[in-house]
Amino acid sequence: MRRLLIPVLVFGCAVRVAQAAPYTPQSDDAVLERLPFKASAAEGRELRQLRRALAGQPQNLERALALARRYFDLAGAEGDPRYVGYAEAAIRPWSQGAEPPTEILVMRALLRQYRHEFDAALADLARAAERDPGNGEIWSWRSAIALVQADYAGARAACDKLAPLASTLLATACSAAVDGLTGKSAQAYAELSAALARRPDADAELKLWIQTRLAEMALRQGRDELAERHFKAGLALGVTDGFILAAYADFLLDHGRPAEVVPMLRGWERSDILLLRLALAEQAARLPGAAAHIAMLKQRFDASALRGDKLHLQEEARFHLYLLGDAPGALRLAAENYRVQREPRDARILLEAALAAKDYAAAQPALDWMRRSGYEDPAYARLARELQAGAK
Amino acid sequence: MSRALALLLLIASFTAQAHKPSDSYLRLNIDGAQVSGQWDIALRDLEQAIGLDANGDGDITWGELRAHHADIAAYAFARLSLKGDANDCPLRVTGHQVDHHSDGAYAVLRFAADCAAAPAAIEIGYQLFFDFDAQHKGLLNLEYQGRIQSLVFTPERSKQRFVLGEMSALRQFLSYGREGVWHIWIGYDHILFLLSLLLPAVLLRQRRQWLPVARFGDAFWDVFKIVTSFTVAHSITLSLAALGAISLPSRLVESAIAASVVLAALNNLAPVVGGRRWVVAFAFGLIHGFGFASVLAELGLPRDALVLALVGFNVGVEAGQLAIVAAFLPLAYVIRASWFYRRVVLFGGSVAIAAVALVWLLERALNLKLISA
Predict the structure, then answer these.
(1) Which end of chain B is less packed: N or C, by CB atoms within 10 Å?
(2) What average pLDDT does the segment B123-139 reach?
């Protein structure tokens, strides 16, 4: 379970920025690729065993699910979407049927949300919950996906269903996450920090997640120093996690401290999300690495466009706005992104891009969200005021 | 319980994927019966499919990859099929290399496919990695007659068919159209011939005097008749020559074109043909058509899309012509009543055109003598 949360960067080799022409390596010893885990390690052995077991009995549901789970966990741990494709293929014999078994529905929902097919994922989870309402996993996912869609009533309802099935700390975390986004961040902060204090024995991963949420709630109340203390407490847990790094990097960038971002994110270039922050920091600090990292990002976005994927529109919008200086392009991407993902960060880039492009009407969906949700954050309120002033 | 907990945590980082999903990059170049290709396949995927890391140290070296070259080709070719007009075009390896894409190292498989004859349609079946990776995509770049078409193979869409003529039809049409426009613009002899006929269109010849036409409609109608008859005439000979029905020596054609310009310009100075200049446009248009045909012959006509190219070129010539007319007519109409138009533009212009065309005529005739000597 620990690995689930650790996007370990095992790849050591540098990614070539410019796409080179095909070549013939000079020596047989030239290392072309480092695999994400050693094939001889227990992990690789376990995976091979699961694959072999399924190959022996391709119609065995339990084996397929075990392999799909393993792949899905790996996708989270390594941030590698390849494993999602592997998992999908493993459950394909069942998921393509008219009435997939409940476990397959849940698995398929997880894979679908990974690809940002949120409505399809929720539909699967709703069907699964009808058959197995006592399954806490289903409710925790429904709450999490509803939050991404800014459906706070749906998220709260799912937390209510989760509460009797989970620990107090987890139940509090679930409801505090919703409250923190709907104008009650002071109350949510107090409840969540108290719940955390009562459980010093909690998993480091859960503590990390809660510290990140507490930092965000503090930011929304304008308590920036308190937020930074939570970020630092989270990082001090020693759990490697891309999400807190991204959130803390954004915090530092917002506070004009790009020089601190660069050493923190060095070595994380493999992650598009963190590479973007690194390039933003290098540009703000006028460091020479910026140009190469901007080129690298461009190549990544081009590659996913070629494939037809739109999973990183929020980052692509920020890339266009702040690194390419292309406000209209950024606005187009941010608006497209906001139709699918509606977390605060998604709203923020829409506000910023609309402001930069002087297309004030385009920011309306994000402004509506701020009004309806009661989201508190002085930085967002400032953006909204600037937009409203510009529109006049 | 612990799973629910973990999953709630995971959601926070689920967007933070570090890589892109699996793709392969397939390039095909079709040149008649010869098909050559390059297929970039991720080492990560090959490791999953057939196992490359022989010593299990987590590194894939060139030596390990080289040892698996035959396996890779056999595995990949079993999952790619190429059919030219429903006949298999068997694949064979022509080389192995390495390349890097944004997500890591790729084995580069170069190959050739031998079709029995140049196919009119090609069908590509792609099955690589679909059995174990439902998200894998094959990104194809198909190159045919200078045009590159891109498309994506997915498990749901693993077979695609191209009609090769069709594929490049629009592109060919446009490219020949562009050539047509270009040729009329750089072909000063055609422009000057047309201008010579158009110059008097805004005027009326009465009692040996040039008088301005009263209405724009009169000028427009005159121009319309001239341009249409020129177009119809050169379209006829252009088509006949391009299709090989008639062929004239190009030196004769070029000299005749120069002569036509001289005569058209002189007609403005001492009018012989007055209101029936459209007849002149038609008669000499037949000669100009042969001139266009020789340009088209130099461009080379695609055997499978002859008519298309011909029509495209012709449409291009007309478009170029219309652009000239559109620039000329309003301007000429506005200044038609002035002394400047009659003396400088019409008289002076026609003298200049006749002089230039006479030089061309001599040059081309001279060339004829030199070449035949």
Answers:
(1) C
(2) 91
